[in-house]
Design brief:
The chain is α/β, with parallel strands linked by helices. The chain is built from 6 helices and 13 strands. β11 and β12 form a beta hairpin. α1 runs antiparallel to α2. It is elongated, with a radius of gyration of 21 Å. It starts with 14 loop residues before the first helix and ends with a strand.
């Protein structure tokens, strides 16, 4: 693993433990509300209110919001020509979400009529046994194709199997390499960088075939690579946009405070989701479409990033 980039320790706790904690919290709120029936005094109403609010928040965040699906739209670059790009990341198929969720993602993405689809890594939650759940990805429709990169969950335990699955699926996996796509006589560069936690991220190799003036699309699983990538591409005249995931947007957020948990990089708390700029190049950081750790999402629904790149 390259030492240029940080790796934040992640707890590899069983998903059943997270589910047990959620059920325990829900039961405790129900119990607290029930016990107040025999209470008297000024604390009855506050305890009931907090119990109901706590139950609804945990239930909504664990079983409702994770099943919502938003589309976050961006426009980048300038010019008369444009390409519509759909970016999906962090599916994390496994105990929480499976093929039915992936089918829903694919149907919604196809309905957006993208010219190009990018898959930003972290397809798995656990290991290679869940790879068959990704089968609906083969139905993605885009005239310029669908391309994918690896994420840390994919490289962690199932790198070889994940690569084999994508090779068999017909979806090109860009591991420190780029491809050139012809669009009505115009060249578009699509580049993918390997995961920088458990893989071998190599920015120089990923960009070695770049020309200075062609529009370029770059996939980086971890946004921490973006400043380094921008420095390497400094001076490019072609429209360039970076796409990244990995953070899940914080996954569980509070108003005005942002992510409850520490983000998996050393860039600072504001780099959770949204649009950022490095060396004049935009980074579109998606909130992902799945969950890791607890099954919950709060104030951070799953999202498809839809970008219009003008050049």
């Amino acid at each position: 693993m390259p030492r240029r980039y940080s790796r934040i320790h992640e707890l590899d706790l069983p998903w059943r433990l997270y589910d047990a904690a959620i059920l325990l919290l829900l039961a405790s709120f129900v119990g607290a509300c029930a016990w107040t029936r025999s209470w008297t005094g000024p604390f009855v109403l506050p305890v009931r209110f907090l119990s109901v609010a706590g139950f609804l928040t945990i239930f909504y965040g664990s079983f409702i919001e994770p099943r919502l699906l938003a589309v976050r739209r961006y426009a980048v670059g300038k010019g008369e020509r444009s390409i519509r790009i759909a970016f999906l990341s962090d599916l994390h198929v496994g105990p929480y979400k499976g093929a039915s969720w992936v089918r829903r993602l694919v149907d919604r993405t196809n309905g957006l009529k993208p010219d190009l689809v990018l898959l930003g890594g972290d397809f798995l939650y656990r290991d290679a046994s869940d790879l068959p759940e990704l089968a609906p990805l083969k139905r993605l429709e885009a005239p310029l194709g669908t391309y994918a990169i690896m994420g840390n969950h994919d490289e962690w335990k199932s790198g070889r199997e994940t690569r084999a699955w994508f090779e068999a699926s017909g979806i090109p996996l860009l591991v420190n390499r780029s491809v050139s796509i012809d669009r009505e006589g115009e060249k578009l560069l699509v580049s993918g960088v390997d995961d920088d936690w458990y893989g071998e991220a190599d920015l120089e190799a990923a960009f070695k075939d770049f020309t200075p003036d062609a529009p370029a699309v770059v996939m980086l699983h971890n946004p921490e690579l973006a400043p380094h990538a921008a420095a390497l591409l400094r001076g490019r005249t072609g429209a360039t946009v970076f796409f990244s995931g990995h953070t899940h947007g914080g996954q569980i957020r509070l108003p005005f405070l942002g992510s409850v948990a520490r983000l998996p990089h050393d860039m600072g708390r504001r780099f959770d989701r949204g649009r950022f700029t490095f060396e004049g190049f935009p980074l579109l950081l998606g909130a992902g479409t799945g969950e890791s750790g607890p099954r919950a999402r709060l104030f951070c629904p799953p999202e498809i990033v839809l970008a219009e790149l003008r050049f």
